[in-house]
Amino acid sequence: MYLCTLQESEAILSELCDSLDGVSRRMKETATYFCQDVSKFKLDELFKELLNFIKELENAIKVSPTPSQLTHPHTSHTLTPSHRRTINV
């Protein structure tokens, strides 16, 4: 009735523990990379922030004008980055 022997179960458990240790180590490395407190770092919050960033980026790409739409009002020349003005506030 039992599919695994005790030794097989122990081996599987050992592999699982090793895998969890690896995930924990990677999580700490990720927290350190993003300059976060390792004790408070949560992967689900990181993934939510990344997803939000991607959605905002996709939205910005959709609403931003294409280079062909960036023409100077008095000429038909396409504006290059050097033509754009920056406003200092």
Number of domains: 1
- Rg estimate, integer Å: 26 Å
Biggest sheet, open or closed, and with what strands and sense?
none
Number of helices: 2
Description of the structure:
This protein is about 55% helix and about 0% strand. By secondary structure, the chain is an all-alpha fold. It has one domain. The relative contact order is 0.05.
Give a brief description:
55% of the residues lie in helices and 0% in strands. The chain has helices spanning 6-33, 43-63.
Question: Helices, strands, pairings?
Answer:
Elements: H1 6-33, H2 43-63
Which key terms come to mind for this protein?
single chain; 89 residues; mainly alpha; 2 helices; 55% helix; 0% strand; elongated
